[in-house]
Design goal:
single chain, 13 helices, globular
Length: 350
């Protein structure tokens, strides 16, 4: 999964854990505290663990059509925010399209074609890898990572899954004459327009919290309902920057994820959808009819979000043809015993 560094949660209720970084007692979102059991971990026909979570479907008019748990609670969407961040960049002069715009929305696997695309964005802006400030890492894809390490290459920013987003942020700064050395600062002009765009697309309210994402860029806490609404709006757009972002993702799905990623299979199989996975078990998807879906597994386990998303999509009637292949890829979370499948993570929606 992309961006695996943990972030603090936000908003209401009764958590008594002290945040070691601030000394404060953080609020806990009702999307977490009021979350019902939504997933079973089954081994040999026996449920050995459960995961709680929240899910929501919004209609083209923005109304909630399906809710599991309390989706009004805010969450950090983590990398599911990337299409919204990319939209802000396009609105402010980012002049990329196709696969180069798709990788701005990506938590890519670090395959060679991903790195080539990120480098192309930098070169087009007159920049180099040295200008990137995202957290150095090895490629996410197992094959690419093995090759990278085998070649003696250290962790590098270009190989980390957010390098396309960061390259695009830098390119947007160059277009506008904004400082490139401080582009991650929440008060930087780039990050301020990103904050405004996230607020607009998710319902108009200012984010309840802004923190540092795993890659070093700001991340905004928004209601799960707002995240679904934003993806529905992107997928239903007929023109403008929103359509450019949606087309880039749906037409170049391998750049959003990788050759062996379920988000790639989803974008490829569900016609004209917009989908993005995020760390701490978040997943969001927009359908071309304007419906939006967002899910969050409360404990952040990476094995659950795709299964929960597939269950919600099936419940609202998505399926048939290539969509069935996409749903099967989302649901493919086997439980292993001695290296062999002996069970699976399965949906248990209330």
């Amino acid at each position: 999964m992309p961006d695996t560094s943990p972030d603090p949660t936000t908003r209401t209720t009764t958590d008594t854990t002290t945040d070691k970084t601030t000394g404060a007692t953080p609020d806990v979102s009702p999307a977490l505290t009021d979350a019902p059991v939504v997933l079973h971990v089954v081994r040999g026909g026996f449920v050995e663990s459960v995961h709680r979570g929240a899910a929501v479907v919004t209609g083209p008019d923005g109304q909630v059509e399906l809710a599991v748990g309390d989706p009004s609670g805010p969450v950090f969407p983590r990398s599911s925010s990337k299409p919204l961040q990319a939209l802000a960049m396009v609105r402010h002069g980012l002049d990329t399209d196709g696969e180069l715009l798709a990788i701005a929305c990506a938590s890519h696997s670090g395959e060679a074609f991903h790195l080539d695309a990120a480098r192309a964005i930098l070169a087009g802006a007159g920049l180099t890898e040295a200008d990137l400030q995202n957290t150095p890492d090895h490629p996410y894809d197992e094959t690419a990572r093995t090759t990278w390490i085998g070649a003696g290459s250290p962790k590098q920013s270009i190989a980390q899954n957010c390098s396309g987003k960061h390259a695009s942020m830098l390119a947007t700064c160059v277009v506008n004459g904004w400082d490139t050395a401080t582009y991650r600062d929440p008060e930087h002009p780039l990050q301020r327009v990103v904050t405004d765009t996230v607020a607009e697309l998710t319902g108009g309210a200012a984010p309840v919290a802004i923190a540092v994402d795993g890659c070093g860029a700001p991340i905004h806490a928004v209601p799960l309902t707002g995240l679904a609404l934003a993806f529905g709006r992107l997928a239903a757009a007929t023109d403008g920057p929103e359509r450019r972002v949606a087309n880039a993702m749906s037409r170049h799905p391998e750049y959003v994820g990788g050759t062996r990623r379920d988000v790639t299979a989803t974008l490829r199989g569900i016609e004209r959808c917009v989908a993005k996975d995020g760390a701490e078990s978040v997943y969001a998807l927009g359908l071309p009819d304007g419906r939006g879906v967002a899910v969050k597994v409360a404990d952040g386990s990476p094995r659950g979000a795709s299964v929960l998303l597939a269950a919600v999509l099936r419940r609202i009637g998505v399926g048939g043809g290539t969509a069935d292949d996409a749903l099967a890829a989302l649901e493919n979370k086997p439980v292993l015993g001695h290296g062999e499948p002996v069970g699976a993570v399965v949906a248990a929606l209330p």
